[in-house]
Amino acid sequence: MNPKLFVRQNITIAGVTKTIHLHTIDELRKEFGRSQEIFIKDHRNRYPMEDADAWKILEVASLGTLSKLYKNLEHQLPEKSMIAKQMGLHLHSELSSWLEAITYVRNIIAHHSRLWSRNMVKKPVESLNNPIGQWFQNALLPVQSKKPFLIISCMLYLCNFITPGHHIKAKVLELFTDSPTIPIYKLGFLNNWEEEPIWK
Questions:
Q1: For the whole model, what pTM was predicted?
Q2: Domains of the chain, residue spans
């Protein structure tokens, strides 16, 4: 609720200009108002004129709204850098870029659109500033950067920090093993990708 925590910018949508802060609050309130979760309905019934606690609102916020919320926080906030560090990244700009790209992929899948062999409109930052975890040793080919491969690798990197011991990489590799005739290079999995530290 504190506008000082957000970048000082305006945004114009459908002819209406608001500060980034007000736009973010409005989006969070909209998603809160649409939610059918029991604890949200309970809050709306008990406290109809009161804003909910952050944990309630963030529980039902969409990935896109959360991504924009993080991106639009004031860049000098130490908490913004702390969040990036907890995800294994040194720069908040890297995490913002990754969240935006992951949200883009999530939306493609949620709308049952084709991910296969598609060029990604949103490209995450590839060259990390001294990555904390296993990343790429060699520069990616342009085709690897524009296909889903890079974004899938970003998701894997984040999972390594958020959920140590996850099985996502094993499931991806198993999927490839079980379907040997599928040309995975069309997703950007080529040029000895399996030898890169993050995929070893």
A1: 0.91
A2: 3-62, 82-199
